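Field: COMPLEX_INPUT
Field: COMPONENT_COUNT = two
Field: RESIDUE_TOTAL = 348
Field: MODE = joint
Values follow.
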Amino acid sequence: MTWRGWTTIILVLVFVAGPYSFAANAPLKSGAQRRVASTPINDFRFIDEYGAPFAFESLSGRVVVVAFVYTSCPDVCPMITASLRQVQVGLGAEERQKVHLLTVTTDPEIDQPKVLLAYGKRYGADFANWSFLTGEPTALKKVWQNFGVGVKRKGRGLVDHTPLTAIVDQKKLLRFGYVGPSPDPKAVLSDIRALLSERLSAPAH
Amino acid sequence: MRIGFWPLLVFFMFLVGCGRNERMDTVYAERCLSCHGPGGRGDGALAGMLPVAPPDFRETVQRKSNSQIRRVITEGRGLMPAFEPALRPAEITDMLQMVRFLSREGRDVAWWERFDALVVAHCSIPWETVLGYDDPPETEENK
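Field: COMPLEX_OUTPUT
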């Protein structure tokens, strides 16, 4: 093949395949409303994307970003997860040790660990500090209520729910909530860093 | 020339469910409409918020095979969710058919595209089971 042929193929790949491949990492238009809160979050135990037990208390001392979505959501959930991925990418190496991301399902009927693992991989999630959680409906219901998330099943794989992305501080207080699609990653990162600096400036006991 | 009863019956069985129906409209309205829009032109209510605009089915679907469309529906693409296992195989077929129907609206349809519905219906039949190709159930004797 001539050099012109190769150039054509490369240009086609860059301009046609590129946007599809990196759609999940492309900038999103923010549509979420930021709210300030101060709600204590109770401990909970679920299972993660590998089917391993996961305890919220294991994140003690870290800032935790919690998003409530379900994998087959045809509405705003994909935008929330894409925003969360941008938040994860925006964290520095040191920050990643102090911040954990959680995606909690609102549809445990469909979202089994295998499904959540595939979902996380599709978004390029780094599972080192991002867990995808599911569990018993009764246990999940308590957590949804604790975060103020309303969930209503409409059919198989179809759920109405509050599109919440919450930020919980090191003392397990829900401090900020973003309600709606595409929470602005820069704003979320800014809130995370503010909470991290609070810890640094807190008086030693 | 006489055509036997059974071949005719089988042919009409293929045709059943090949037209656009309420099931297809429902599955499309519930899962696709918000991004792809009522006519599949990529102008749904959420389309403006997406980083990449959803495609206009009239421009993209014609070039894709049924298995390619089915794969996009079951595995997702970009921000589009994977609809398996949430949707049953029959619902995925309905969604596929609906995408095909919408892709033909407002453009010249090639003669072979008119047979798509028949092809989808044919391919949706579990032939291994119908023709008895499935492995026999495992018993103590044939282990």
